[in-house]
Design goal:
CATH class of the largest domain: Alpha Beta
Helix content: 40-55%
Distance between the termini: 45 Å
CATH superfamily of the largest domain: K Homology domain, type 1
Strand content: 15-25%
Shape: globular
CATH topology of the largest domain: Ribosomal Protein S8, Chain: A, domain 1
Number of strands: 6
Number of domains: 2
Strand order of the largest sheet: 1-3-2
Radius of gyration: 17 Å
Structural class: alpha+beta
CATH architecture of the largest domain: 2-Layer Sandwich
């Protein structure tokens, strides 16, 4: 079975990799075959789970992540990928302002979320994509939604800190 995944032209080379290295790694680890067309990657696969894994890596690279970070999705089964299409949430005229709020001054807000929650965040075109463990990714998504809705940076940072403490406390309860 084969499915096409739309990819921006300028990101196709990143998925292919130097001398096809990234393509080969995805094919080997996901037991699939990748073919490249104009703005698409065709994924031929046998197993649906392997397809989902390949699709997530391809989309992660297509949405701005470097291949080394995207490939972590194949190396660590605890990591998940999610992409938020801002054009579905905010009017076109507000896009730059909202992206600026999420990035923060000199990238501080984005870095703070990544560091505190141990996630990777990519902002590419109209997409905000996150790679991380499920609970941390969920908190990052909620924080991003708070920023979209107009919450102050300080409020969002306090929220993230509180949620991170709650996660640590819960993990200690299991000991």
């Amino acid at each position: 079975m084969g499915i096409e995944i739309e990819v921006p032209e300028e990101r196709l080379k990143a998925i292919f990799g130097k001398e096809g290295e990234i393509k080969r790694k995805i094919e080997e680890k996901c037991k699939c075959k990748l073919d490249f067309g104009k703005g698409v990657v065709l994924v031929e696969f046998e197993d649906n789970l392997d397809f989902i894994r390949a699709k997530n890596v391809i989309l992660a690279i297509a949405r701005g992540f470097g291949s080394e970070i995207a490939m972590k999705l194949l190396e660590d089964e605890n990591l998940v990928f999610e992409s938020i299409d801002l054009s579905q949430l905010v009017p076109e005229g507000s896009m730059r302002r909202i992206l600026g709020r999420i990035i923060g001054k000199n990238g501080k807000m984005k870095r703070q979320m990544e560091y505190t929650l141990n996630v990777y965040i990519s902002i590419y075109d109209k997409y905000i994509s996150i790679i991380g463990e499920f609970e941390n990714l969920s908190i990052a998504r909620e924080a991003i939604n708070m920023l979209i809705e107009g919450s102050q940076h300080s409020t969002v940072l306090k929220f993230i800190e509180r949620k991170r403490r709650d996660l640590k406390t819960r993990s200690l309860d299991w000991l």
